[in-house]
Amino acid sequence: MAFDIVARREDERYILKILFNIDTFRASSAIELIRVSKITESVPVVLGERTGNGPLERGVVYYRHTLPIMNLDTFQDYVDGERPYIFSGPGGYYVSIDGQRMKEVRERLRYSIGYISNKIGVSRRSVSLYENGNAATIEIFRKIEEVLKEDLKRRIDLREAMEGVSIPDPEAPEDELVGEVIEILSMMGLHSEVVKRSPFDAISLETYSRMLFLGVVEDMSRAARAAAIKSICDVLLQTPLVVSERDTDKETIGGCPVIPVGLLRATRDQDDLIRTIEKRAAGHS
């Protein structure tokens, strides 16, 4: 599966993938994790214990395939408000610097860029880059703070870090029935994204800023899958829907409203669809 846990606290949403060794995390899994997190406006995080080089350290954010990776202690610190400021990169660990703050302190102390470069043992250009927001190694960062005697750490905001990551291009559905359902929803004005390695087949965005988590089944024996879709929607406060290829008298499966594809074909518009979903959900609440 592309993810293992969906979590929410107030307006914070997280899509979590759990691994023991993060070296097993593949680009194909990252693509689907990014896709789901972007559509649901959630923060994707990979939680792991170690790499081939040893255990993940507390307070350090690692990155693979553009996604943040950390151990459980670091994640718990993050959601409790103690955001990390150290991240792993080529050649070691680095610290994100509040460049604007660094420049303000330096100018207040009337230190020149040349003075700072001599004190910490780097070029003037490096000092300028730090003041423009470039990260520094832990060793250099400690020297900067020793000279300026200020807290210059810029703590990592995972949501902000993911803003620059683009959502992968949508893929065409491989299943013919899923493709037909998405086409019907598109004619109603719903934009749908196909999702792989998930309990649901697609996520549709409807005009009232709600999301439909859509599972398409050939028969009604997939109650466990439907229950997973329902639990995800309960956490994210969104709407589940299962579309059945075959006609059925059941109005729900695994807690999800069910609409046979024949009835979906006859549904006029989004309002009609939402009314049908809400009526079926209310009848078995």
Automatic annotation (TrEMBL):
The keyword Transcription applies. Keywords: DNA-binding, Transcription, Transcription regulation. It comes from the Archaea. Residues 102-155 form the HTH cro/C1-type domain. GO terms for molecular function: DNA binding; DNA-binding transcription factor activity. InterPro entries: Cro/C1-type_HTH, Lambda_DNA-bd_dom_sf, MTH_967-like, MTH_967_PDDEXK. Pfam families: HTH_3, PDDEXK_19. HAMAP family: HTH_type_cro_C1. It comes from Thermogymnomonas acidicola. This is Putative HTH-type transcriptional regulatory protein GCM10007108_01920.
